[in-house]
Amino acid sequence: MQPRGNPSLRIVLTAVAIVLATQTEAHAYIGPGAGFAVGTTLFAFFIAFFSGLAAIFLWPLRWAIRLLRGRKALARARTKRFVILGLDGMEPTLAEKYMSEGKMPNLSKLKRQGTFTRLATTAPPLSPVAWSTFLTGCNPGKHNIFDFLTRDKRTYKPLLSSVSIHGSSRVCQIGPYKIPLGKPDIRLLRKGKPFWNLLGEHGIFSNIIRVPITFPPESFRGVLLSAMCVPDLRGTQGTFSFYTTREGEDPDHIGGEQIHVTRNGDTICSHLVGPLDGMIESTEPLKCPFEVTITGRDHAVLTVAGETVELTAGTYSPWTPVQFKAALGLKVRGICEFLLLRTEPEFELYVTPVQIDPDKPAMPISHPTVFSTYLSKSQGSFATLGLAEDTWGLNAKILDDDGFLHQCLEADEERETMFFDALEKVRRGLCVCVFDGTDRIQHMFWRYIDPKHPAHSGQGDNQHRNAIDELYVRMDKLVGRTMKVCESDDTVLMVISDHGFNPFRRGIDLNVWLEQNGYLTLKEGGRHQKYLAGVDWSKTKAYCVGLAGLWLNVKGREAQGIVDPKDANRLRDEIAEKLTGMRDEENDEEAIRRAFNAHRIYDGPYTDQSPDLILGYNTGYRVSWEAAIGQPTDRLFHDNLKAWSGDHCIDPTLVPGVLFCNRKIETEHPRLMDIGPTVLDMFGIEVPAHMDGKPLNVAESNGKSSGKSNGRNGSSKPTRSSQKKSRKRSSKAKIR
């Protein structure tokens, strides 16, 4: 082995920091093309290796310090272990319905044993906003996440709001090769410190599985696997591929691409599409060739990256390792699943987004980096994409209901294995795991339980009309298995959701409303252009992009702003007043309950980064698909005919989450932001003054009150941190 100081070795080590950069469309939750620079293949390994060496030498000292701090914290703690099971999007009215019908005996038992109540969500009640509030205990003005999307102030195009990924800013050009001289810049845009980081500072260990908005992973005392906003290997939020021999014009599939293939006898040859090769000047993505040999009707054999996989129509392959060869012999590794749809009369093959291989991650998806490798070695490959369930494949009718449900069930099963491994190993400390199936299945199958929905009978064959009922029964069984391993008196168990669910029947094109009311002007021929490309900014005061609200075109803030900053607050109030109570005259319904001036409802240093207005839609309504990506249409209201038929992007009072606990909670109106402070309080750690949440009044294991309160029910003396925050509370009305 060459000595560590050898210059040629340093060049090799730098060369493996391959940056596979791409800049494509950013649909994020609306559609996944948030194309970012994909990080290293081996760079993360070397970082982990040398960090591991340092950890070995420093381990005795760190162990002693943590032991002392942990003992001190646990001496004040009122529980040894706190377990939080997150069921993203569980709707309280459905939970009540199924409990009353006897379909959810375990949650009914948890309710009798302790607590069941509604849990106030955030404004807006979007998953990245809500879970960021959960993990920081702060309102969005302090954690900087207001939507799935934000906008580029220079181009007005949508951007993912939670993470920014770019290649190394320093590059050495050697002939045709670009050698990065630093690691990629992977930056978490969410601000604030997760409450488990505070636990770690007091020596308490945490195991955090797939909590949204934890990418890139932050260092703390514990282990963590990131979730929402982890990209695929192409740097997008999930781009599926559809291969077909059908001739004709290829449709523009949101969230995916259609690739035409030719059948030569019984053989089809094509390729998977990967990231760009950041080592050379090229606009062509890397490719991984594959070959399919048809062995019979609806049967085939796939050969890819040295692997041979049997394919049967309607059945997914296992997670299959693939690799893309870059310059200088470097390889970028990923995993994907193949679904043969049919072989006759036309060949059709669906491939999931190519995801980061957890065994050999091309960029950090866990803390420590080797944690994802440990999980992969112990349970096999698993989905790593932040939004692993391909909702757009179902919307595009490439997948059928069965094909989509497979992904949901598989992701939840993978997560359950991780969760129970954590429960087995963490006897003292915090365990948190969030399951996405409740959110994804309700998004896509609400049409079956809502007779008034425009897509109620327009998509699917009703085979899965009970998919949501079955989902809640399945989650109840998960809760039951969790309760069995949390039976001891020294474990607090909470089951929570970040928001509830409602139907999404009609979309509102807010850019059309702004145009009709004189706030937005289109160029000639600008209608139907995506990403606000058809807007005349010299005559536009406000615009819509994203799911949450509206933006003003402010001078000095936006590149072509015309609104004087001094007039901005007056304009926010003016538009909010006009939008509040907006009616859908065609259906004779109120479409927008409330519009909020965001600068009046948020409190914190990042309030000026929020949309200028937040919209509180009524039940059945939401921003239209077109308005969310800045594509003005010619109609204000649109029937939603997609499989994506349920949503929660509405007035927060209409979609509270759920809170179950194995202990009594006496607080009258608990909020999602109160959960983190409650955990800190139960472990005897004073809640930081900057947190907006307050500890809930949780009874001791023997049923007696803990003596703590968040000060809202008046039943106990407030904690010292609660008193501090009460004195600092602003008199302005705020939505938490």
The radius of gyration computed from the alpha-carbon positions, rounded to a whole number of angstroms, is: 26 Å
Overall geometric form = globular
If strands are numbered along the chain, what order do they take across the biggest sheet?
A: 2-36-25-1-24-9-10-23
Please summarize the sheet with the most strands: 8 strands, mixed
Percentage of residues assigned to helices: 25-40%
- Low-pLDDT parts are 1-28, 31-45, 711-736
Structural class: alpha+beta
**What number is the mean pLDDT?**
87
CATH class of the domain at 70-145 and 190-229 and 386-391 and 399-501 and 655-736: Alpha Beta
Number of strands: 36
Would you identify the CATH H-level superfamily of the domain at 70-145 and 190-229 and 386-391 and 399-501 and 655-736?
Alkaline Phosphatase, subunit A
Characteristic key phrases:
Alkaline Phosphatase, subunit A, eight-stranded mixed beta sheet, 36 strands, single chain, disordered N terminus, alpha+beta, 27% helix, 736 residues, disordered C terminus, five-stranded antiparallel beta sheet, globular
